[in-house]
Amino acid sequence: MLRPPGKVRPMKAVISVIGKDTVGIIAKVSAECARCGVNILDISQTVLQDYFTMIMITDIDGITVPFPDFVDAMTRIGSANNLKILTMHEDIFNTMHKI
Amino acid sequence: MLDKFDILETLNMIREECLDVRTITLGISLYDCQSDDPRRLADNIYDKVMSRAHNLVKVGCDIEKMYGIPIINKRVSVTPAALLCGRLTRDGAVGIAQALDRAAHELGINFIGGYSALVQKGASDGSRVLIESIPEALASTELVCSSVNVASTKAGINMDAVAEMGRVVRRTAELTADRGSIGCAKLVVFANAPEDNPFMAGAFHGLGEPETVINVGVSGPGVVASAIRRAGDCSLAEIAEIIKKTAFKITRVGQLVAREASNRLGVPFGIVDLSLAPTPAIGDSVAHILESMGLEQCGACGTTAALALLNDAVKKGGVMASSQVGGLSGAFIPVSEDAGMIAAARSGALRLEKLEAMTAVCSVGLDMIAIPGDTSAEVISGIIADEIAIGVVNTKTTAVRVIPAIGCKVGDTVNFGGLLGEAPVMPVNTLSPAKFIARGGRIPAPIHSLKN
Fold first, then answer.
1. In sequence order, what are the beta bridge partners of B145?
2. B20 to chain A: which residues are within 8 Å by CB?
3. Per-residue pLDDT reduced to its tens digit, B386-415
């Protein structure tokens, strides 16, 4: 849907999670990824003074739902668990930081 | 591979430093809407705007979701309505404004601009009717924005129009006195008005523009202020470098959004406006950028120099980040829409005269300034004439958007709500320029050599 013609590199999305640390945050986020056909490529995660922060890089080539619906689903998990979850297409990072 | 530091930097800009895309503005030509019958004309305009912009808000929201970047405003600009008013009465012209307002409400957009006239050399019948109708048009609509270009570097200053606009601003304030004279917040008087400006209240779809076009305005004063603060003690040359790099990143996001909107709407991409547009939110202030450079408060001696540096660096950084730039491009200094400006105006650090000097080096002009409600039309015309002269002589855009807050005096505050913010009423020099303004005629275009 989003891929420009002729492009072969997999499309990625970045999911960032910030909030008070509780049991099962990664489980909930990754379960939703699996449900939507989103493959997790890389996770970096730390807990600083009770605050959980995670950046997850995912491959969205095989996504089975429209991307905006996936973003909504992640945002819902965030609000249900008192977390701030942002899901962003990789192009914003590439555009901003690469010439 | 994506770099984690880059990801964190972008996330921080959006979460902590109020980075956003300020507006996606869809320009629509109304040339084919012409009709002898005022009602048919208004219907044609309504139908055209609805048919071309029906998807704008949805596309804007989808892009916002895809990239996680807030897009604050989705707007429409149209052909200057004066071009369609030649055979109308004042009521007919107001009918156009109401049709635009109805369309804007139905589309769910934030503003619609283009209730405008270009009279730098003189007024056609249509322009005359439109200008006369502005107070009533702005009082009877909510989302319509109006602008009048009264001067250009090539044509000089149409002082008859300047005199008329003093009266129009005053009358608009009176007709919307029950709402803090908010009509004047939607009315701009321009010199050298750009034809591809995506920002309100001055946006209109210029005469040489395509049938439809997408223009995007970026923002991000908070990001620039934070970058300067992080740099600590460094020279002004280094500060200019930091601003350039930051403006580049901000503008790249605007370019991405503009391209995506253009693809999804099937509308050509026009320009990215390289702007630092503040909001009243904490951490989103242009005044605070100037203060982060080392001024005790915005308005202190040195403010104009700091703003000149900022404005130039924003353009230099932004111009490389976008394939096509235009609009107003530069730092905005609207008083009511900037927490730092509001504080400086309230404390007396920032006065109208200093703001006027600042407009000589920044992108727009005297913007969103509340003045006492008893300010005469002649004094308002005098303010307009001074500001317009700065633009005409310096070959740049300048504009005046002042709000004579009816019933208010110096020290009172007018609250417009939302992005329009709140404005402390600022003192104005009340000596009368009435005789000068009443002379009318045109101030000739300036000479283009012997520049000093």
1. B113
2. none
3. 999 999 999 999 999 999 999 999 999 999
